[in-house]
Predict the 3D structure of the following.
Amino acid sequence: MAGFVRFQSALRSPSGRFPGVFGLANGLAREAALSVDDAAWWRTANDRMTAAYVDPSTVDPLCYDPDLHPGARAWFKDDAHALIAMTREYLALLDRYGVAWVELRTADPGEVVYEDDVQAVAVPRTVTASAQPGPEGWTP
């Protein structure tokens, strides 16, 4: 059975969301928290990811719109091995800086509002202000 995987913050952000792996890494860079070597790696890695994979919001600028698609979040298809391998390098960066993250897996990410061959953006079937990710990434 096909599935999906998501890497996100283990902790809720002040806005109430669980930022994804790239948002967490970009936040470290924005805060100038990265060493010179890690900042150079991050810049090169982001350029490589941008060249290799589509940013869903460039195809559908409304895919993350909070009014149209509340709680929309990106998921990798679990057979997107190259993308997931590249993402694991970002997870190593987060580990070096003590940023807590979790890996979520599900067969049903919710209502898909964008999809390509390696990823999907989906709105969870249930979105609540107090929802915490469970073992499959969802809270009943």
